[in-house]
Amino acid sequence: MKKYVALLVFLAFFITANAQEKYQFKEVNHIVNKDVRYKLYPTFNMWTYLKLDTKTGDITQVQYSTDDDDMEVYLGAPEKIIADSVSVNGRYELYPTSNNWTFILLDQIDGDVYHVQWNQKRDNRMILKINYALFR
User: Fold this and answer.
1) Which tens digit of pLDDT belongs to each residue from 64-121?
2) Which region holds residue 126: left if phi is over 0, alpha if psi is between -120 and 50, else beta?
3) Which of 34, 40, 63, 84 has its CA 20 to 30 A from that of 100?
């Protein structure tokens, strides 16, 4: 009998974990609105969102809580300088991946893509350009 209870607990945990991962992956609205400069993206963590500046690509990790531990931490930005003439709202968009900690940032004008990783620990946060490879 104890084996069946343990199996049921394991299955419930597995189903819940998969549901959280799918929640992050499906809940992003990718409507490009040139009038909107900032967008919030959910993560699998119910307390954490990513805020994207769609004009510059700057990303902050927004965390709220019930214990007054709310904070907004700068995650990073693409490492390139954009002239004001092509710096427009809606230029950047975030896309979730099946990895809970990782998003893809797309420059919708140049086509550049970036690996975005958020984390509670500062050393594990990053934005890295994904290089285009002609041959592999």
Assistant:
1) 877 777 788 888 888 776 766 678 899 999 999 999 899 999 999 889 999 999 988 8
2) beta
3) 34
